[in-house]
Design goal:
heterodimer; A: 389 residues; alpha/beta; FAD/NAD(P)-binding domain; eight-stranded mixed sheet; globular; B: 70 residues; alpha+beta; Alpha-Beta Plaits; 3 helices; 17% strand
């Protein structure tokens, strides 16, 4: 059933992996995606929020994978002051399970092969060169040879390690997350709620993202240095007991989001890393779908071209293009994250109190950020860089 | 001696522990997880970061170790 050779082997069938596969296959080379789980897109380890403009370059919005459309954010400070901000763009809460399937189908349409229950346990090395992967598929160990290996294997990022790249995440940069999808709760179906402060989510935030009018993802992420003292599951149980006791829980999921900046090495020899595996997550929001698809598209296209032209030096263009398009911005977001997530409850409250004095139609994330600058003036330098480079 | 213990029935197989392990000492498949004892240094980063308390640091085993060496 499996061929023994493909030009490009992609490990992992999340959005970054299937996007990389699609862009490589569009260059006319042979591509296989190996997914360790039995399903593409499941289990869903994600809050599922994206911006419309972020995903549109990759897939046409389709109601079948849009659970909710978002037009406002509600930021809630430790003393429960609610600051509503109208989002001047459109956001979506996805049905990732369907969304990921559709991305998989787009890759397949471009010519990529996809196999699930295929666990890559090592790289194949011959004469000192990486020549493929060792995979366990349906209980059998096999070897698949390939010219380029793309590691899209998520937070674990073991493909990078097998290739000799240091991929492990500093614990303070690992947002340790747990999420329940709950039913029978009443939330604004067009607003995303964010709780900040030490009671529910020290070094991170707690989110409520609506899925339709009576269901929502309620989750939180806290830095590993904070999780060390008290676990995320304990924080979220505390929140649910207090705010939504007895709420029916349809799903519980745990996960980790690497909120650092991009790995120093995202290419080594003929191995490329994309998405969470390359630490291409927006470190401020923890969102990784859009940036992962950007990383995947760049890497996939370059891989395809390198094979067609038989010029593997092309792979070295990937980090450069990635940093120009997204990576540099993430470095600044990282600094801002470290400042904001270390604000005291008192500071967060005082920012919220000032923010609600701004008329709602003039209230933006930018105007609130300006208030935050009073408490942490050095942020202005980082912030200025986002807009002026 | 391994001081980290996994409660496999509790595990959600999310991979946070693998992501923070400096030694690549955790093997995670779709629905199985194990620690590679010869690589593990008992640094406990996996224990600290597990969102749902699947990994446990067995302090009591340190006592056992000491008792043995005495």
């Amino acid at each position: 059933m499996l061929d023994k050779f493909y030009d490009v082997i992609v490990v992992g069938a999340g959005p970054s992996g299937t996007t990389a596969a699609r862009f490589a296959a569009e260059q006319g080379v042979s591509v296989i995606v190996l997914e360790k789980d039995r399903d593409v897109g499941y289990p869903v380890r994600c809050g599922e929020a994206v911006s419309k403009e972020g995903i549109e370059p990759f897939i046409q919005p389709d109601p079948k994978w849009i659970a909710s459309t978002i037009n406002s954010f509600i930021l809630i400070s430790p003393d429960e002051t609610e600051v509503k901000i109208n989002f001047n763009r459109t956001g979506y809460i996805l049905e990732r399970r369907i969304f990921d399937y559709e991305l998989g189908k787009l890759a397949a349409k471009a010519g990529a092969q996809i196999i699930t229950k295929a666990y890559v346990y090592d790289l194949l090395k011959e004469d000192g060169k990486i020549t493929g992967v060792k995979v366990e598929h349906n209980g059998e160990q096999k070897e698949i040879r390939g010219k380029i290996i793309i590691g899209a294997d998520g937070v674990e990022s073991r493909i990078g390690r097998f290739a000799g790249i240091k991929t492990h995440v500093k614990i303070s940069d690992m947002e340790c997350c747990v999420q329940f999808t709950v039913s029978s709760i009443s939330v604004n179906p067009n607003a995303c709620y964010f709780y900040f402060g030490t009671e529910y989510s020290p070094g991170g935030y707690l989110w409520i993202f609506p899925k339709g009018s009576d269901s929502a993802n309620i989750g939180l992420g806290i830095g590993g240095d904070k999780a060390k003292h008290r676990s995320p599951i304990s924080y979220i149980n505390h929140f649910l007991d207090k705010k939504y006791p007895q709420v029916p829980k349809l799903t519980m999921i745990s996960g980790g989001v690497p909120c650092s900046f991009t790995l120093e090495e995202i290419v080594k020899d003929n191995v490329m890393l994309v998405g969470d595996a390359a630490r291409q997550v927006n470190p401020l929001s923890g969102g990784g779908i859009t940036s992962g698809m950007i990383g995947g598209s760049i890497a996939g296209e370059i891989a395809g071209k390198a094979i067609k032209q038989n010029n593997f030096k092309l792979l070295q263009q990937y980090p450069e293009i990635w940093h120009q398009r997204v990576g540099k911005r993430h470095e600044i977001y990282y600094k801002i994250k470290n400042a904001i997530y270390n604000f005291s409850d008192k500071t967060l409250n005082s920012i919220a109190h000032s923010a609600i004095k701004i008329p709602e139609d003039e209230r933006t994330l930018l105007s609130i950020f300006k208030i935050a600058l009073y408490d942490k003036p050095s942020l202005i330098f980082d912030f200025a860089k986002i807009f002026f480079y | 001696m391994l001081l980290i213990e996994i409660k496999p029935d509790k595990c959600d197989f999310c991979g946070v522990c693998v992501g923070v392990c400096p030694e690549d000492a955790i093997e995670l498949k779709e629905a199985s997880i194990s620690i590679i004892e010869k690589r593990c240094t008992n640094c406990a980063k996996c224990v600290w970061c597990c969102p749902i308390e699947v990994l446990v640091f067995r302090k009591d085993k340190i006592q056992q170790l000491k008792a043995k060496s005495n």
